Amino acid sequence: MAREDLKRALSIQQPLSELILLGKKKKEYRSRLTHIRGRVYLYAGKKVAKVRKFTDEEAQALPRSVIVGSVEIVGCRWDTKENCFAWELANPRRYREPLKARGGVPQPGFWHPTF
């Protein structure tokens, strides 16, 4: 697949990024509402989150500090159970080779990568 030309990247720690690519994580919980809809790059952040389904070794072996694919943001709603906003994710695409952004500074949340 040719590289997508998207405007934004969403930073999410590994192995949570991997769960999105596998289609197992369909919501991203954030303290802020987003009106952004559509496809965004999925950036696997530098830090590793603790996730029961992954050992520390498995999580450390996943690609980090790179764009691993893309995902669509299709909705956002308040989740009373989690007491925060649930960003609804769909149609993940894994890239054969991760992309290394040259410009832009990865940040929590959205950022604008350049290549």
Radius of gyration: 14 Å
The overall pLDDT average reads 93
Number of domains: 1
Order of helices and strands: EHEEHEEE
**Structural class per helix/strand content?**
mainly beta
Strand order of the largest sheet: 2-5-4-3-1-6
- CATH topology name: Archaeosine Trna-guanine Transglycosylase, Chain: A, domain 4
First-to-last CA distance: 17 Å
- CATH architecture assignment name: Roll
Strand content: over 45%
What is the CATH top level name?
Mainly Beta
SS element count, helices: 2
Let me know the CATH homologous superfamily: Hypothetical protein
- Outline type: globular
Unreliable sequence segments:
none
Number of strands: 6
Description:
By secondary structure, the protein is mainly β. It has a single domain, classed as Archaeosine Trna-guanine Transglycosylase, Chain: A, domain 4 (Roll). Helices cover 10% and strands 47% of the residues. It has a six-stranded mixed β-sheet with strand order 2-5-4-3-1-6. A hairpin with a 4-residue loop joins strand 4 (66-79) and strand 5 (84-99). The longest helix is centred in the N-terminal third of the chain and has 6 residues, at 16-21. The model has no long low-confidence stretch (mean pLDDT 93).
